[in-house]
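Narrative summary of target 7.
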Amino acid sequence: MYEIFAHAKINLTLDITGLRSDGYHEVEMIMQTVGLSDRLAFEPHHKGIIITCDTPELPVGQENLIYRAALLLQEYTGQVKGAIIHLKKNIPLAAGLAGGSADAAAALKGLNNLWGLNLHFSELLSLGERIGADVPFCLTGGTALARGKGEILLPLKPLPRFGVIMVKPPFGVSTGRIYQQYDLTGGGVRPDTKGMLEAIEDENLLRIGSLLSNVLEETTAYLYPQIGFLKQVLIREGAVGAAMSGSGPTFFGLCEDEVKADFIARNLILPPGWLKIVTSVENG
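Modeled conformation, tokenized:
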């Protein structure tokens, strides 16, 4: 059995710069891999794709991005062998952390290995783009500036191992609905992407924290007012900065290390059902 980890991501910045002819939004965002991850285990099967998962509410059929990645690989290579893929889910669903995209990226890597396809990484990136806008980043990982619909990636200087405290309410959000609402009402404060790039180059945690920004925060908080307090609370409890990841509803706070992130988590009082996750920046 072959295992691979699928890491979540956070958005240090997220800006929308236009609408593309293919229906996607033109974005400019700085993305960062974190230690929080799902685990996928692969074993050969004579025919077909079988996915098992420890999270009953996650579909494991054709709507699952792992399944779509496997079918796409079979179509692209003519592979007739199947696979059984066991998914241990740790990344919350519909949380703005790219859990589904991370799983799809891991499936592309894992099945390329399991089936001995020997596809070049550039081929996996091209296939990943066809599955979802975040999949290319999830294949690459680390710290990167993403443009286009998210598939144009510029690797950046890796961040030090800062601590991360995440808070997710007991519900998910639809990315499509958030973007539709954004188109209707416009967004909030746009990030200073240039300033963030400079802060990352300088490894200046305080500056990075002060520049965390997501243009979709206001839109998601308008639809889900119960998350509006999270940013201020995380900063009040000691994070150097906080922001929403992706289209939400998860907010994260950046800290000098995991010890500080854990301290905040232990002292953070939240309503029942809200999830606290302590992790760190991951560049390995």
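Residues 99-114 form the longest helix (16 residues).
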